[in-house]
Design goal:
single chain; 720 residues; alpha/beta; TIM Barrel; Immunoglobulin-like; 6-stranded antiparallel β-sheet; 14 helices
């Protein structure tokens, strides 16, 4: 096993940097733009998304010369620092509207729908009429969120949305945004500017008329040409519509038009201008259209999936990480992204979000294959109402900014691990282009068996070889067909040949058996991905639960296994592959590197001593006004310095900082807090100092959370 990987794992190249949303939400000044970009750089961030956002002054209209002057300055500053820029293609969202300019200039291009109307008062042509109910084409009334106060959802100034199923509207959108950016920034395209981010384009817009169908000119003609009739309209509006073949046919035509008219036009433009189409569709399970993205993506917002809630495997949103990752695997895309952490506030309390939560989300995304993280968001300003516009700010206005470089490094290590690697799943789970199975696949997750979603539309990329289903770099020996999925004839024929060659095809609940990673007992909260990167085998393992996982695991024999901390970038332990005592605390993750026997034997710790320190958590009544941290001091007497010493804090505030004998050790950002301190110890008295930092919820919302530290132990180890 080549050992060169270690250096890149510990200090990953800049290309694996996260690319945070940067909310431009206040009066922009060049000096402040430069200051913030430089601050990003100093924390290890090498890319960002310029995102015009609610709070920009009306004196700086979107797409104005003044606006573009600031964009150009930001790009120039980034280029000087060898950073990358991604351009958000809208002012707020959904994309495709140019902040309402398309409809403002061409009212006939507003988003359309089919609506039920009283036939007796209808003064327009009807598609159909039955039992006094007519079906007519109308404007949807949809709007978008604007960038100026007074233009938000439900407000009179909210811009109107365009008909993104209409080629003329999409051409206008490209001309007003993509082309306008290019004309002003062409010198940076393909080098500093690497992509456009399109954000959940909506067929009807926000706050649209209720109980309507999306529509555009020519759609109904296509429906009729494919065997539909006007008499189908009552079915398309029925309560059971989603279960009908008529509705599936209509929405298939809609999705096809959206792919051809919107996504493909944007994708072709980006390809022709040497940048990636990035972003994500409106729905969490839209995997088919991801083939048109240069970097497929999804978004994890509004606490769709919440740590500690049991939602990690529940509902359509639980599929979104694998939606983008599996699209990338099957469509030959090197990277896939997730817009993560948006509006993540526990219990509805603004800013009630911890690094502990953030780390859980990163592991949740990473073990499913996401390799480009787009944190939502870094705020240019938190002045006034801006602080409460989809918080939290996970960047420089956060209490953890001083330690944010640790989070950046963690994201880079995960991205490095998951890029240019092939996961070793042997199961493909078939899907439609807009629906992914999540109930049956829970069995895979809970048994530590990998699978990948394979959309039916990818059949042209599939090949059979001696009982294996091959697509791009993936090789599958088993296929799960969800019980709701209707297989086209070409798939039926393919799977028949697959079975004849020895492949396995199942329906319903899969008969899952553990792969080469095996546990001796059930571990339903344990998640594993086995990756081959070059000649190297890695197993990224994470505990998604709230309780410690202790089990005996094994990997293929005739090898050693190195256990690495992804957070610290250090080697933690070594085992024979046939026997691994695995201990993962709540929300803890680890990396196992599988290494053939051709290596020297390693020593193992042979003695352990523990010293106990006894601080306590503060009560709210003890918190002085304006107090944002508390310090503890203790002394430990040592006869000799151990070869390894770990200071462990069982409970504490949001962030714990440690120093030993005046030396700054670093910061721990979630419990259990642990510090490697042996390098700072000396014979005799050693002074240990801990600082506990209060939470975001306390700082921004005045909501009390546990504060201080308790259950502090110093564990010392050495060789015999």
């Amino acid at each position: 096993m080549a050992r060169e990987w270690i250096a890149d794992f510990i200090s990953p190249p800049d290309e694996f940097s996260p690319a945070p949303f940067w909310f431009w939400n206040d009066t922009l000044e060049k000096a402040e733009l430069k200051r913030q970009i430089t601050a990003f750089y100093e924390k290890g961030i090498r890319a960002f998304v310029i995102h015009p956002r609610m709070g920009l002054p009306k004196e700086m209209p979107y797409l104005s010369d003044a606006f573009f002057e600031m964009v150009r300055y930001a790009a120039e500053t980034a280029e000087n620092l060898r950073m990358k820029v991604i351009l958000y293609d809208e002012a707020m969202y959904p994309s495709g509207n140019a902040h309402g300019l398309i409809v403002e200039q061409n009212p006939e291009l507003a988003s359309k729908c089919i609506a039920q109307v009283p036939a007796c008062v209808a003064n327009r042509p009807l598609l159909y009429c039955e039992n006094g109910i007519g079906y007519a084409v109308e404007f949807s009334g949809g709007t978008m969120r604007g960038i100026h106060f007074g233009e938000d959802d439900g407000e009179n100034g909210a811009p109107r949305t365009a008909d993104i199923l209409n080629p003329a509207a999409v051409d206008k959108f490209i001309a007003l945004t993509y082309q306008a950016y290019f004309e002003r920034l062409k010198a940076y395209f393909g080098t500093t500017v690497i992509g456009f981010f399109t954000d959940e384009p909506s067929l009807l817009g926000r706050n649209h008329k209720k109980n309507v169908l999306p529509y555009s000119d020519g759609i109904w003609d296509e429906y009729i040409a494919e065997g539909g009739t006007a008499a189908d309209l009552p079915v398309l509006f029925s309560k059971e519509k989603s279960q009908t073949k008529q509705y599936r046919k209509y929405m298939r035509i809609i999705r096809r038009r959206l792919a051809e008219v919107y996504y493909k036009k944007l994708s072709d433009w980006c390809t022709n201008h040497n940048v990636f189409l990035m972003g994500h569709p409106e729905q969490s399970m839209e995997i088919g259209v991801q083939s048109l993205f240069g970097i497929p993506g999804q978004d994890l917002v509004l606490r769709y999936v919440e740590p500690g809630s049991g939602s990690a495997l529940q509902g359509e949103h639980s599929t979104m990480a694998k939606c983008s990752a599996d699209a990338a695997r099957h469509f030959g895309k090197r990277r896939n992204s997730n817009e993560c952490f948006g509006a993540c506030c526990k219990h509805g309390i603004p800013w009630n979000f911890t690094v502990d939560d953030m780390k859980w989300y990163l592991d949740w995304l990473g073990v499913r294959g996401v390799n480009l993280f787009i944190p939502h968001a870094f705020y240019y300003s938190v002045r006034g109402m801006r602080a409460m516009e989809r918080p939290p700010d996970v960047g420089m206005h956060n209490i953890w900014w001083a330690e944010f470089d640790k989070l950046v490094t963690y994201m880079k290590r995960l991205s490095w691990l998951l890029t240019d690697s092939v996961n070793q799943s042997r199961w493909a789970v078939l899907s439609s282009d807009d629906r992914l199975e999540w109930k049956q696949t829970a069995h895979f997750y809970q048994a530590q068996v990998e699978f990948n979603y394979l959309p039916l539309s990818a059949i042209g990329l599939c090949q059979l070889d001696n009982g294996m289903l091959l697509i791009h770099k993936q090789k599958y020996s088993a296929v799960l067909v969800p019980d709701w999925l209707q297989l086209p004839e070409e798939w039926q024929n393919l799977l028949l040949k697959f079975k004849e060659q020895g492949g396995k095809v199942e329906t319903g609940t899969p008969d899952v058996k553990q792969n080469d990673f095996k546990t001796q007992s059930a571990c339903p909260d344990l998640r594993v991905t086995h990756l081959v990167k070059g000649e190297n085998h890695f197993y990224f393992v994470t505990n998604e639960g709230e309780e410690e996982v202790c089990c005996i695991a094994s990997l293929p024999p005739n090898a050693w296994v190195e256990q690495w901390s992804v957070w610290e970038g250090v080697l933690c332990n070594e085992f024979e592959a046939s026997y691994i005592p695995l201990h993962l605390g709540r929300r803890e993750s680890t990396l196992l590197a599988w290494i053939p026997y051709a290596k020297a034997e390693f020593k193992h710790w042979t003695f352990e001593e523990t010293a106990v320190l006894a601080p306590r958590l503060l009560k709210e009544s003890e918190m002085a006004e304006g107090m944002t941290s508390v310090r503890y001091q203790a002394a430990v007497e040592l006869n000799q310095v151990p070869q390894r010493a770990v200071l462990s804090v069982g409970k504490g505030g949001e962030i714990i900082r440690a120093s030993v004998n005046g030396m700054q050790i670093g910061a721990s950002m979630w419990p259990p807090h642990q510090f490697e301190i042996h390098s700072a110890l000396k014979p005799g008295e050693n002074r240990i100092e801990l600082e506990a930092v209060a939470s975001l919820a306390w700082k921004y919302s005045g909501v009390w959370t546990d504060f201080g530290v308790e259950d502090v132990e110093l564990v010392m180890r050495g060789y015999g």
